[in-house]
Amino acid sequence: MKKKTTMTVTDIRSLAEGVFSMKLRYPEGDLPEEVKPGQFAGLYPNDPSKLLPRPISICRWDPDTGELQFVFRVAGAGTASLAAQKPGDSVDMLGILGNGYDLEKLSGKRVLLLGGGIGIPPMVELAAALAGRPGTGVTAVMGYRNSDLFLTQELERYGNLLIATEDGSVGTKGNVLDAVREASVRADAVCACGPMPMLRAVKKFAREQGIPAYISLEERMACGVGACLGCVTKTVKTDSHSHVRNARICTEGPVFDAEEVEI
Amino acid sequence: MREGTCGVKPDMSVNIAGVELKNPVMTASGTFGSGMEYSEFVDLNHLGAVVTKGVANKPWEGNPTPRVAEVYGGMLNAIGLQNPGIDVFIERDLAFLKQFDTKVIVNVCGHTEEEYLEVVERLADETVDMLEINVSCPNVKQGAIQFGQDPKCLTDITAKVKRIAKQPVIMKLTPNVTDIAEMARAAEAGGADAISLINTITGMKIDIEKRSFVLANKTGGLSGPAIKPVAVRMVWQAAQAVKIPIIGMGGIASAEDAVEFMLAGASAVAVGAMNFHDPCLTQKVVDGMEQYLLRHNIHTVRELTGAVQ
Q1: What is the DSSP letter of B53?
Q2: Is B109 a catalytic residue?
Q3: Which one of B276, B278, B282, B284 makes the best mutation probe of the A interface by having the most chain A beta carbons within 10 Å?
Q4: Residue B169 · residue B144 · CB < 8 Å
């Protein structure tokens, strides 16, 4: 069930320039029934001039401590106010939102995880979930701007990690697909999150390889729960909810089969 | 205002054009879908009415993205009235709403007069309590707002809708006019049973780093607390001009805001963009209005309408 919850900040730190990790703890006895990799939550800035929740993907979920970890980039005043929170502060959160990755479709396969920039965080929870499934192999290929890396230790824990940097300072010089080709990574399925040019290239790559690609999309959002129709993506076929070729990223997504959306 | 007995539960019911609502709190069209998504957060049985997202005779694709942008104290939207069309709406959305003990107000949109009338006709035999005619959306290129910016056109479309409508008709007015009182009178002259205002105020946001428009549509409708003083002023001006009931909206974020609209002359209110800030807000506004009445020893919420001095 979705709800707006007042969470407590338990940890906040900078992981790289402009990139912050924030852990939020649920009130006791108020945990969500399930949190799937690829799902997200709406975090409300503590600023009355800002109405809308910021959609931020879930990087880790620990049901034992009731903590969600979010890793986000400061992109404006809203995310800057989130980054300025201190342990013990309260943050209102709308969650848990979106569909998440379908783990059944990935079980027992060689799964290639591709993350670009601030698309990297949701890949950590996905890598952890897949690593626990018998016969499932995880290769994570993450793309950064430069040597200011983040979340690499977490990813290494769950599989093979390759790195691409735009400036070539670490790993392959170029993007994630350059690194995949350089290492001749073989995979049965791709999961990707990152900027739109990367997702377009991933869709093309998966098509060439004849394997499915599950991509996580981003769009400016308002309600986060499927009511306002702000965050739609073009679909190949008529969507069963909208009855036009638009699907709601917050509700039918954010994870889509790349062949089902026009990007 | 009469003074009530302290502690007696106030009467929250209001009557809009013969339709009895259990309280004056509605949802503003387009911010609440058809109630399905928000029924996880709010018991729809507790609302005066659910006003649905605009529906047309056929499915509409709406505008390209980005469709929404946040601004100081509010937001811009240019959804472009995406909707699944009247057939799916009746089959799915109306069927869903029937389960609840609340009034159902269907917001009707169209590009042309014929399109509006087709939807009105299709709804004639459905379990719908009222119609709200959207002649004020700033985000579609053809139709919609054009009917709402010319008094003669507004009177004309109102009269045509009234001729075939089986339910009371609310005309939803745009604030993007010079004289709101004139538009209110034009709707009344056409036979409108009520008016609702304000729809969004046309606005724009520019990304100065990219030197480009934030919205794909370039312009969008401004809503949220930023527009509330404009909305309260327009409700008051409209209330001076017409006898038909007014449904007031524009940036309502609390019960206190709702009371302000009532005092300005509204008989009912609608919660819009702030549903996105707090999905439980409609319920909180109902509860808070009741508390206000108790605190001020007022018997019925109806006494608030136009009571500003």
Answers
A1: P
A2: no
A3: B276
A4: no
Which chain B residues are Cβ-neighbours of A97 within 8 angstroms? none
Task: Specify whether the CB–CB gap between B124 and B69 falls below 8 A.
Answer: no
Contact B275 A221 (CB under 8 A): no
Residues 6+ apart with CB under 8 A from B169: B130, B131, B133, B158, B161, B162, B191, B192, B193, B194
Q: SS3 sequence, chain A?
A: CCEEEEEEEEEEEEEECCEEEEEEECCCCCCCCCCCCCCEEEECCCCCCCCCCEEEEEEEEECCCCEEEEEEECCCHHHHHHHCCCCCCEEEEEEEECCCCCHHHHCCCEEEEEEEHHHCHHHHHHHHHHHCCCCCEEEEEEEECCCCCCCHHHHHCCCEEEEEECCCCCCEECCHHHHHHHCCCCCCEEEEECCHHHHHHHHHHHHHHCCCEEEECCCCCCCCCCCCCCCEEEECCCCCCCCCCEEECCCCCCEEEHHHECC
Query: Residues spanned by CATH 2.40.30.10 within chain A?
Result: 3-97
Query: Which domains can be identified in chain B, with CATH numbers?
Result: 14-59+81-204+222-304 (3.20.20.70)
CATH number of A3-97: 2.40.30.10
Interface test with B, best of A51, A232, A239 (most B CBs within 10 A): A51
If one counts every other C-beta atom within 10 angstroms of the C-beta of residue A145, the result is 14
| Distance (Å, whole) CA B170 – CA B192 | 6
CATH of A103-216, one of 3.10.560.10, 1.10.560.10, 3.40.190.120, 3.40.50.80: 3.40.50.80
- Token output for A9: 């900040």
Q: What is the complex's ipTM, to 2 decimals?
A: 0.95
A chain contacts of residue B40, beta-carbon cutoff 8 Å? 1-3, 225
Tell me which chain B residues have a C-beta less than 8 angstroms from the C-beta of A251: 37
Query: Does the CB of B288 have a partner CB in chain A at under 8 Å?
Result: no
| Nearest beta carbon to residue B73 from set A49, A224, A241 | A49
Reported as a single tens digit per residue, the pLDDT across A77-107 is 999 999 999 999 999 999 999 999 999 999 9
CA distance A182 to chain B (A): 34
Q: Is the backbone of residue A43 left (phi > 0), alpha (psi -120 to 50) or beta?
A: beta
Tens digits of per-residue pLDDT, B58-88?
999 999 999 999 999 999 999 999 999 999 9
Are the Cβ atoms of A225 and B67 closer than 8 angstroms? no
What pTM does this model have? 0.95
What residue ranges of chain A are covered by domains with CATH 3.40.50.80?
103-216
B214: tokens are 């934030």
3-state secondary structure of B177: coil
Residue of A43, A81, A93, A223 to mutate for B, most B C-beta atoms under 10 A: A223
Task: Give pLDDT tens digits for B107-135.
Answer: 999 999 999 999 999 999 999 999 999 99
